[in-house]
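Hi all, posting the design record for the shared folder.

TITLE: backbone redesign
STEP: 1 of 1
STRUCTURE INPUT:
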């Protein structure tokens, strides 16, 4: 039997953007995480980096806008798919028990309908890309679909998320240059390492609940060494990104442009309070700004090479 509706509606649906919507739409907006745009930003940045590092080209600015729409639609679709797969597990975790599917405020059929609509938006974006970029984008569907299951079979679902959330870098580069190459792969690999770092920070919030329900994560795997592990992944990301920028412009400007991003990531790792969930969430959210710093570095290097 479901709880009283007043007990299962989170505060986020009573205020802000979602609170301004008609009551029947609010659970669906919540299912898409409409009140939490951080995920869409984090999905967007690797593709935007690739577009500007590749030199923008004649369609650069429209591409940045299409990538933004695609990031929003596919991140929203990913949230819906994740909640479909995890609906029973979510009911057992304090932080996720009020999600629309877990609490029964959205039906399974309604969630599937929303997922289809969001995928159609993604298809519209896909059709704006050149053939090679389209093929690369389509190749991401299998790892995206597999992601929600990773926490059940590996201690490092964050690594799989890194593969998925960084994929746009492999789409953005051929959208401008018409080919894939080592620069795109280095940019992508650096982003994978970055995602592992920031999603490990995010997972610190759930270590106790994850242990109770048997969910695996890099935060649990690293244990007391979480801060050092996050710092290592961030360091690897900076090294790989340095190599990517150096290939585009082999001089000191490349490394100088990357310095603000490197300092920001170092500050995250050093100042992180691994036992404080609120601090972990704040550090995680700061990666939206980190992505902007990397974007500016790629823009400077890519448009002055």
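Okay, here is what came back for every position:
SEQUENCE:
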């Amino acid at each position: 039997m479901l709880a009283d509706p007043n007990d299962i509606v989170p505060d986020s649906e009573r205020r802000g953007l979602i609170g301004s919507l008609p009551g029947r739409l609010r659970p669906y907006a919540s299912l898409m995480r409409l009140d939490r745009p951080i995920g869409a930003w984090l999905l967007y940045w690797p593709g935007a980096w690739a577009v500007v590092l590749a030199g923008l080209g004649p369609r650069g600015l429209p591409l940045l806008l299409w990538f933004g729409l695609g990031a929003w639609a596919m991140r929203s679709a990913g949230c819906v798919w994740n909640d479909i797969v995890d609906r029973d597990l979510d009911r057992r975790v304090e932080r996720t028990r009020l999600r629309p599917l877990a609490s029964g405020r959205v039906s399974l059929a309604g969630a599937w309908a929303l997922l289809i609509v969001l995928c159609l938006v993604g298809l519209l974006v896909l059709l704006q890309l050149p053939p090679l970029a389209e093929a690369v984008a389509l190749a991401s569907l299998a790892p995206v679909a597999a992601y929600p299951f990773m926490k059940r079979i590996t201690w490092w679902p964050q690594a799989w998320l890194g593969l998925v959330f960084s994929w746009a870098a492999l789409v953005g580069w051929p959208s401008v240059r018409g080919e894939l190459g080592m620069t795109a792969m280095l940019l992508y690999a650096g982003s994978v390492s970055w995602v592992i770092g920031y999603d490990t920070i995010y997972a610190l919030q759930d270590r106790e609940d994850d242990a109770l329900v048997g969910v695996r994560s890099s935060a649990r795997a690293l244990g007391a060494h979480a801060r050092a592990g996050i710092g290592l992944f961030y360091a690897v990301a900076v090294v790989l990104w340095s190599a990517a920028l150096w290939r585009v412009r082999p001089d000191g400007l490349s490394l100088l442009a990357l310095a603000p991003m490197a300092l920001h990531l170092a500050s995250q790792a050093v100042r992180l309070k691994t036992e404080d969930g609120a601090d972990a969430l704040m550090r995680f959210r700061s990666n939206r700004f980190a992505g902007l710093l990397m974007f500016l570095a790629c823009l400077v290097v890519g448009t002055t090479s």
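COMMENT: Residues 1-6 have pLDDT under 50 and may be disordered.
Let me know if anyone wants the other runs.
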